[in-house]
Design brief:
The protein has 336 residues and is mainly α. It has 14 helices and no strands. Helices cover 83% and strands 0% of the residues.
């Protein structure tokens, strides 16, 4: 079995085992008392997230993939986000999106450009959110250490945004630098030409996407903001259902920092790091049992449900060939 599958299995175990081990016997009682209607609302919120991301995708595609209905766009989003959750660092996400859009006649470079703009929107949202959270921490006189914890991610995001702006302004020089680097690496001339052609197609597709009417780009950003607000409200409702009432801004901060910490584990879905960091931030406020129960519910809705609901959609739209490519499973293993 390939390493990607082993990492996914390890992540699935960690997501459940950490809250169960730290929550103890009291955790089961709290889970049994959790309102079923509230859990149904949280599941509905995930469908709302897919709906909003589908709307953003349709805006960014701007008709380049042919007539894509909203239901079809939701299918693409569900399959792509399944691959993001199931692979280390979410590496399977762009690969899945490229394959699905190729079926609709889009070049890989065009799809990569759309995905890049989508990531820019998310990066801009998280940067502005962290700036707002720093102000929130200062106004509410919350632990200053949290401000320092936000400082490093903000610096990294600011650096990323600055690099994007510089690449946009000096893209011609950057392309010449890449061409020179490929020559120094002694890559064959025909392969070098092929790589540079793909890079130029990507640049043109990215420019085409960014030159969309401003109201469409603002609409895509609006859908992205709504998606993250809904997605990052899940932990708030999980705690609310357990009888713990925290400020929404605090739960937003916990999720943002814990998901950033989860990326350091290099496991699918940030397994392990997300659970431990969120437990460390919530336990002093709501107690260890309630924190463990809330995190188990939160991760079940925002991780396990993405896998359970997204897997059949992924198989239906992408099929076994892409599954083998994403997870690098041999044909014999897949049939077994």
């Amino acid at each position: 079995m390939h390493r990607t599958v082993w990492l996914l299995l390890a992540g699935l175990v960690l997501v459940i085992s950490i809250p169960l081990l730290l929550g103890g016997g009291e955790l089961w009682r709290q889970l049994a008392d959790f309102p079923p209607l509230l859990l149904a609302l949280m599941i509905a919120m995930i469908f709302a997230c897919w709906f909003l991301n589908a709307a953003k995708l349709r805006v960014l595609l701007a008709g380049r993939s042919g007539h894509l209905t909203h239901r079809q766009a939701m299918g693409v989003v569900m399959a792509t986000e399944f691959a993001i959750c199931a692979t280390p660092g979410g590496a399977g996400g762009p690969l899945t999106l490229i394959a699905l859009m190729k079926q609709r006649g889009m070049r890989p470079a065009q799809t990569t450009a759309v995905y890049a703009v989508d990531q820019m929107i998310d990066l801009l949202f998280f940067f502005t959110s962290m700036a707002a959270l720093l102000i929130y921490i200062a106004i509410r006189a919350i632990d200053v250490r949290l401000g320092w914890m936000l400082g490093m991610p903000m610096i990294l995001m600011a650096t990323g945004l600055a690099l994007i702006l510089l690449l946009g302004r000096y893209h011609a020089r950057a392309i010449r630098a890449v061409a020179g680097l490929l020559r120094r690496l002694r890559i064959r001339h025909d392969r070098r030409q092929r790589l540079m052609r793909r890079l130029l197609i990507f640049r043109n597709a990215l420019a085409e996407t960014l030159k969309m009417p401003r109201h469409l780009l603002l609409a895509a950003f609006f859908f992205g903001v709504l998606h993250w607000i809904v997605r990052y409200s899940v932990l708030y409702f999980a705690l609310y259902g357990l009888g713990r009432h925290l400020d929404w801004g605090w739960t937003f901060l916990v999720q943002m920092l814990s998901m950033a910490a989860g990326q350091l584990t290099l496991l699918p879905g940030g397994a392990g790091g997300a659970e431990l960091s969120s437990l460390a931030m919530l336990t002093p406020i709501v107690g260890q049992h309630a924190a463990a129960a809330a995190i188990l519910i939160w991760r079940a809705v925002t991780y396990y449900f993405y896998l359970i609901a997204g897997a059949p959609v992924f198989l239906y739209l992408a099929g076994r060939p892409l599954m083998r490519k994403v997870f690098k499973i041999g044909k014999q293993q897949l049939e077994d």
